[in-house]
Structures are given as structure tokens and as C-alpha cells.
Amino acid sequence: MKLVLASNNQGKLAELQALFAPLGIALLRQGELGIPEAAEPFRTFVENALAKARHAAQHSGLPALADDAGLCVDAFGGLPGVDTAYYATQFGYPKGDDHNVRALLAQMQGVTQRRAALVSTLVAVRSPEDPEPLIAVGRAVGQITEAPVGDNGFGFDPVMFIPEFGQTFAQLPTEVKNANSHRGRAAQQMLQLMRERWLPEGGL
């Protein structure tokens, strides 16, 4: 079964390919099919992911999968949320993971409530008009550290301390991180939904 991934992020593609491969699902990056990126005008992960999935399905004629993810900080009322990728630019930094981390730590100086969640929302549609999209949400809850720790992973991994492991995501082996990350948890839910809703016999 072929699915178009409504993203051109190579890291995201590799992570999801590894999770979906055992069921025989091949993910095609939308850029490989000449599909332009969709607009993401909404304020929630699920609305943006749905818009991206419908856009990719419309242009490809194939079922599509989209992910919208970000960091939700309790002390900031859930922000930066859908603006996570551009978080640093709000404070005069260039766009980029390292700058996002630097900006976040600067904004959290003196803040004692450091709970935050990395959230991934996956949406899959069989067609652009699919009235029942599959929606899976994965959350990884932790504490924002005072300084980066660890050199594995990307994004906010070095400052996301996960109490159940006693380490940041950037300190964990890749396979452990992927299995317990927000995206890994969402993907596991999505696979189960596909088995139940799209594949009534329970297999491909």
C-alpha cells in the first residue's frame, strides 16, 4: 500500500518509514511527486494536519498521511504550539533548532513551572473527500531543563527531560527515543487505526 507523506522533512520521513514498513506501507514524500507544500493557516495541530493530508491526496490521487507537531509549554498556555518551527524568529533569532532551544531557555529564565509536552498529530485520508479521516495524537510529557543535555536527536530533544527515563530525549538511544517519542506514539496509534478502519481483515 502506498501513502503520500505530506512533508518534505527527511528526518520525519525516515522515522515514519521505519515505523510503517513492517506492515508493508510505503511512504512517498510529496516532493518526489512534485506536490507543493500546503498552507497551514490554522491554530490547532489537527486542522493543519488535515489540510496537509487533503492537499497531498488531491494532488496525488493516493491516500495521504500528514503530521503536525510542536512543543506545548504549560507556563505559556500551551504555546508555541503550531508556531514551534518559527519560535526563535519571534525573538529576533534566525529560524532553526538551536535557535529555538536558545530562545526557549531565555524565555523560561526564572520560570519554576517547567512542564511541557511534545505533541504529534497524524492524520490520514483515503481521498481528499474522505469524511472519516484517521486521527492519532501522541504526547511525550516532560520538564524543560535549565540547559541542553545530550547530543542525540533534534529539535527540543536536548532540553526535554523525560522523568520515566531520568534523561532528556537527546540522551536516549535512537530506538528508545523513537518508540517513546510523541511521533512514535502517534504512529503506533495510526497503525492500529489503519488495521481497524482501512484493513478490516487486520492485514495488508
UniProtKB/TrEMBL annotation:
Free-text comment on the cofactor: Binds 1 Mg(2+) ion per subunit.
Chain residues that bind substrate: 7-12, 69, 154-157, 177, 182-183
Protein EC: 3.6.1.66
TM region positions: none
Co-factor(s): Mg(2+)
Active-site residues, as the UniProt record annotates them: 68
Catalysed conversion reaction: XTP + H2O = XMP + diphosphate + H(+); dITP + H2O = dIMP + diphosphate + H(+); ITP + H2O = IMP + diphosphate + H(+)
Annotated binding of Mg(2+), by residue: 68
UniProt-listed Gene3D superfamilies: 3.90.950.10
Record's protein name: dITP/XTP pyrophosphatase
Organism: Curvibacter cyanobacteriorum
